[in-house]
Sequence to fold (353 residues):
Amino acid sequence: MFRNFKMVSRVIFGRGSFNQLDEILAPQRADGRPVVFMLDDVFSGKELEQRVPINGTDLLVLVNVDQEPKTSYVDQLTADIRQKAGLPAAVIGIGGGSTMDLAKAVSLMLTNPGSSADYQGWDLISNPAVYHAGIPTLSGTGAEVSRTTVLTGPQKKLGINSDYTVFDQILLDPELIANAPAEQRFYTAMDCYIHCVESLTGTYLNAFSQAYGEKAMDLCRQVFLGNCPDADDKLMMASYCGGMSIAYSQVGVCHALSYGLGFVLGIHHGIGNCIAFNQLEEFYPEGVAEFRKMMEKHHIRLPEKIMAEVSDRQIEKMIDVALILEPLWENALGSNWREQMTRQRIKELYLAM
Ligand code: NAD
Ligand code: ZN
Fold:
């Protein structure tokens, strides 16, 4: 069976396109209900906050992403918003992957009963979400185009994957990523680079994923190994294309390990991927060599020996979390992946980090 996958309905791209946000949202406001803007609190008091087009009863919610999104935080935000704004006309997420994921999750939970933890998995959502739009201020995750919102729940780190999760609108304004701190920009961008490596070397690869993956990889090379004046524009499109590539294939070993790091040690996705990827020469020799060149050129030093203080129990939990992600292993290693990737082998990979 071929997947008939849902895509973002509308895309606006260009420097300064954020200024068109009010106009884009006008049709959603037709019945007078408020719009909820979820803005990364790193922009609190900054120029971007002043530029959010708040009208009448609209709500501005400053969200904190010091920790990656948890189901408990999604549930709390949903309850607060429901109390203050009823059923809003739209939910707009402005920030990096974490903020966009929070906006996706809240838009789903406003129309679906229970806790967001109940929906971690594939196609468990039954009611369409509130109209939702994503506006990245960091590029790399591909969260702007994906059909998932990655959440850490009581038991697992796993997305709410559904057609309803996909944004109705995205606004890609390269000016918004211009001032991100260099290290964060690099780690998030490498998420995209790793998406491409894992997609392009995976067993799920097809011409659709390859077309987007190769383009995204080429753009990453221009941005991180070349010298281009419009690097922000290119990075933004790399993230988009990398997301499109994995939409029709899958990620692999690095992402499976990174989810374990995130769940047990709270290590963020971008940096966690970099730490894991740096140990995966055996699986991705060319990708890892090029990644190291990029690190060198951008003077990035990864944290070392992160497992020094980690207990056996924690490692076992990381292995459990990594092993839940069966499609990732199958994409990377083929249908007999279980024979190749034993718990012991995963443990060795973790201990090397
Ligand atoms: P992030 O959203 O977690 O943000 C990282 C840090 O950068 C935060 O401190 C944030 O406040 C700050 N920040 C964001 N934009 C900034 C800017 N312009 N200037 C200064 N600081 C800024 O980072 P990310 O790497 O974009 O996202 C990672 C998250 O995305 C994880 O939670 C991960 O699980 C998720 N993710 C989701 C998908 C998906 O398909 N839904 C895919 C990959 C990753
Ligand atoms: Zn990723």
User: Anything to note?
Assistant: The CA atoms of residues 212 and 322 lie 26 Å apart.
